[in-house]
Structures are given as C-alpha cells and as structure tokens.
Amino acid sequence: MRRVLVCVVFLGFCAAACSSKTSGTPATTSNSVTRPRSTATLSILEPKSGATLSTRTVVVQLKLVGGTITKVVTTNIKPNVGHIHIRLDGRTITLLGSLTNPVPVTPGSHIVEAEFVAADHGPFNPRVLSAVSFTVK
Questions:
Q1: pLDDT along the chain (137 residues), means of 10
Q2: CATH number at residue 121
Q3: Is the pTM of this model over 0.90?
C-alpha cells in the first residue's frame, strides 16, 4: 500500500513539473499544455528524399539553424535549446541525437524523421520536424 501511495505522489509531482510554465514564448497545444515556440529550423541533408541506397546503415545528417543541442534533460526549458529525436518508420531510434546519426536499416522503403524538441523531450509548438523517404536495396 505504501508503494502505491509513493508512486501516486511521485506521478502527481511529475505531472505538476511537466505542466509548469516554461521560459520563452509560450504556445498552447490542443490539450492545454503550455509549450514554448522555437524559431529554430531543422532539415535532413542526408539521405536525400527519394534516394535508393545500398547500405545497412544510413547516416542521417541534419542541419539545425537557430537552435542549440544539449544533452542536459531539464524542465527549465528554453525556446531554442533542446534535443534531437530520430525516428525510423515511426519507431524512435534516439532521444539524444546529434547532427550526424548512424541508423541501421533493412531492405525496403523507409521514412526517417528528425525532430528538434525541448530539453524536457517534449515538442515545441509548432513542432520543429523534418522527414524524408528513401529505399534500401
């Protein structure tokens, strides 16, 4: 019973911390959680959209303009400081990515997404997201 109570209190604390006001210019999502707006832009340089590759590891190369990547996870978020999340076919590959990310792939069609997110791993509003599709032989 005590463990359940501790878990409930901890989850309540986490929910309060995640919903607290953030620094920067706030924006509100549909579920009324205040998220910062970032002026950063993110683009995928490699692989090129529509490319056909003969490899088992794709090196995803990104360009981030107006933002700074941090490895620090914090709820004291700033509008242009955050992490890179990489997803392959909707599955998260990395949460603390960099501008160059090796991603293992299998033959077939794929979609890689890169997102610049706040230092608490939550998305900016609007999201700073880029995606490309490619094929592996």
A1: 35 36 40 82 98 96 98 95 98 95 97 98 97 98
A2: 2.60.40.10
A3: no
